[in-house]
Amino acid sequence: MASAQEAIVMNDAEKAVVEKMVEVAKSIGTTEKDMAVDAKNMQQNSAVVAMTNSTFASINFSNSHNWFGQITGSYPGVITKGSHATFTHKADAKNGSKGAVVYMGTNKEGMPCGWLLAWYAPIDPSPSTRNKVYVTCGKAANFDNVNWNQVQTKLDASADLVNYYDSTTKTAIHANIQPGANFASVGASFGAV
Length: 193
Hints:
Elements: H1 12-31, E1 46-54, E2 59-68, E3 70-72, E4 78-79, E5 84-90, E6 97-106, E7 112-121, E8 132-139, H2 148-156, E9 161-166, E10 171-179, E11 184-192
Parallel strand pairs: 1-11
Antiparallel strand pairs: 1-5, 2-4, 2-6, 3-5, 6-7, 7-8, 9-10, 10-11
């Protein structure tokens, strides 16, 4: 894993893709029946995650981790080139939704690569407990034995809009998390240049 979140600037096209995924997540969250349960309390009862595959081939679900909450249904198994997929991560009543997923695929040269997306949507966001995302990508071998404690530490120190570019594999990942009335919307783009 990379030792620190590398600061890169998203170009307009990448930003538009991530913003579109946030909007997809928002539209899904507002149509799911059980999302409205905590609306009167203005608490986030889940994170709705929308991911797009901007790589040159399909990416496949590899691994996940739940610190707080659990997946509703299952994670998308395959996200084909140029398409997007979604899932809902139901919050636990005390801490919210905090989890991570790893997808595997290849870069432009056919090298096996991995992309990791982690999020934290606290049940009751505040200035001291904000919505956060953390991302990283690189060689597939870096994701064989993920150190989830290290990922959690990096997630806890992260922000609501993050980007990472791995210069070795020429892969990138971008993510944004936005609060809603009763759920958080996470948008992410998994890419290779």
